[in-house]
Amino acid sequence: MRTYEGNFDARDLRVAVVVSRFNETISKQLLEGALDSLRRHGANDDNLSVTWVPGAYELPLAAERIAGSGTVDAVVCLGAVIRGETAHFEYVAGGAANGIAEVSLRTGVPVAFGVLTTETTEQAANRAGGKMGNKGAEAATVAIEMANLLAALPKPDEKI
Question: How many other C-beta atoms can be found within 10 angstroms of the C-beta atom of residue 107?
Fold first, then answer.
């Protein structure tokens, strides 16, 4: 029996982080957490890039361009969508989540979902370095593990 697992070694990984500028105070904290996690796992700053987009809805398009370029092993998408008084929240949060998942499937590059979807700014702050940890750091760790797992798995044209 073969078992495949990713590891948490980012030394040779090229990782792009795509960040939503909307709710920038929260996004910056998520970015700090992601970069800290990548560095703690051995990532070299020369292999990291950060791209800012206007909002969470724009994350998938930038992520697809980057993932499809063949220059990265993983992408981390970060942002915060905080519920307001209209249905706008559902459209933005759902569009971002579905789009990010589709990018990963279309390109074959791991795209980690680090977008907070919260009811309040306080909940978002708690998840961006507050008492609930930093979801940006968690998304970066997911990206590292998945990039290493995909490198270990047989390629589509290989037999197991």
Answer: 19
